[in-house]
What we know:
By secondary structure, the chain is an alpha/beta fold.
Amino acid sequence: MILFFLILAQIPSFTLQDVNKNEVVLDSLLVKGPVVIDFWATWCKPCMKSLDFFKKLGEEFDSVTFIGINEDGPRSRKKVPLIIKSHKWDFLILYDNNKKAMKLLQVQAIPHLFVIGKGREILYQHMGFKKKHEKILFEKLKSLFEPEASEESEASKESKISEESESKSK
């Protein structure tokens, strides 16, 4: 019963800094569509694998904003820009100063992923990362966000069929 409550919970908005010290507000990202957040640190090997997979997910789900929230302390944080560059991550990376977001979302261990809907509701969460989780995460995101893509592809198919029948009748 508690898990059911957590899945439907609405999270408060929060503001964190990106690697360029710009402030990013969760609500401003949700205006564009759903957001997937993954908490990570430079010392966490499963986190690195999870964020590498994030990059692939970003290519598949362009209506979704992907964010990595870094939990490193000040000394380790110096490594973050180099890691981003070496892994060629092109999604948003935020710093969680004072563990603010981690406390708000009650994250106990990393990596910890959240899928957040436009109304700030938690649609899905997952803790940990192994190779076998890639398929699970992909299928979950597909089930949550594919209906939009299927409607577009159906409209596209109908348009093509319509064009073909028009060209045949000419």
